[in-house]
Amino acid sequence: MTTFPDTETEAPPYIVCEDLFKIHKSDELEVVALRGLDLKVRGGELMAIVGASGSGKSTLLNILAGLDQPSAGRAFVGGRDLLTMTEAEMVSYRRKDVGFIWQQTGRNLIPYLSATQNVELPLMLDGVEAGAARERADELLEAVNLTHRREHHPEQLSGGEQQRVSIAVALANQPPLLLADEPTGELDAIGADSVYEVLGDLNARYGVTVIIVTHDPEIASRVNRVVAIRDGRTSMEIFRRVEQTGGVTHVVHDEYVLVDSAGRLQVPREFLDRLSISERAKLFLGEGRVEVLPDRVHRVSEEEL
Fold first, then answer.
1. pTM of the model
2. E-strand spans in the chain?
3. Is 37 within 8 Å of 60 (Cβ atoms)?
4. More confident residue, 10 or 118
């Protein structure tokens, strides 16, 4: 379980995004989805990305999946530079290095194929022999607790079961990275619980790096780290850790505000509103801390002098 931020003794991150920008252009309209975003993810991590609609979280996921290109910045996954890869390299990356789960189950599964056949298909397209493909499909369906439903078609499965088959399909070619875009957005509480449980089990079983984009307010209790995106930048992180007090085990969530590579600090809006900070603030360097104060504090102190 992740307990604290990166330290110098830990392995280099598997995913590195630095000063990432993405501008969507439509006719004469430009929408800036990412505004200098920074992000690091360790290999084998189970984490989530949250944020309001339009914050840029799905755009980031599409870039990491190789489905979209950033406008500027740097993005590396497993040492691969996503900005300089050729089209052939990008096709290989999407096929072998990353698995993707859409919110809409209909985008993940072929309706006229059984659960087993859906999992076998990406393997057979990659040239895997039929017997080996069936063995891998059986292994993955067992891992997502659907062995008893392997001959059923999507229409015969519940929404949660369809998403669990989708997870098996996404992992068919053993990608080291699994991306899930709102995987429980169309599910009830029971279906969502089953999907989150399976994602956690697969992360532990195969060591696959899992990134979930979600609006679920309870996600912090299901993953090891949550990164919040606001206005196209990472703004906050929450780490989950376990501590014992008096023989009792407690789950603790440590919250951090992020500082990007340019030294920008995203102070939560509610903090700024409570202090009536709008256009500018005064910084004071104290012993082991930095104080952020309203600019009127500075003006008052000058008047008093």
1. 0.85
2. 15-26, 29-41, 46-50, 72-77, 80-81, 98-101, 177-181, 209-213, 225-230, 233-245, 248-257, 281-286, 289-294
3. yes
4. 118
Give the phi and the psi of residue 18 in degrees, each rounded to 5: -130, 125
Q: List the end-to-end C-alpha distance of the chain, in Å, as a whole number.
A: 53
Indicate the residue type of 77.
V
Classify residue 75 by its DSSP letter: E
Tokens in use for 110?
């072929």
73: left (phi over 0), alpha (psi -120 to 50) or beta: left
Please name the amino acid found at residue 287. Answer: E
| Cα gap 146→156, rounded to integer Å | 13
Rg over alpha carbons for the chain, rounded to the nearest Å, is: 22
Q: With 70 as the cut, is the pLDDT of residue 297 above it?
A: no
The amino acid occupying position 297 is V
Burial (CB count within 10 angstroms: exposed 0-12, middle 13-18, buried 19+), residue 278: exposed
Residue 255 backbone dihedrals phi, psi, to 5 degrees:
-105, 135
Nearest Cα residue to 62 out of 223, 228, 180: 180
**Whole-angstrom distance, CA of residue 109 vs CA of residue 111:** 6
Q: Are 123 and 173 in contact (CB under 8 A)?
A: yes
Q: Which of 216, 224, 214, 217 is nearest to 251 (CA)?
A: 224
Judge whether 224 and 45 are in contact, CB under 8 Å: yes
- Look over the chain and give the mean of its residue pLDDT values, rounded to a whole number: 87
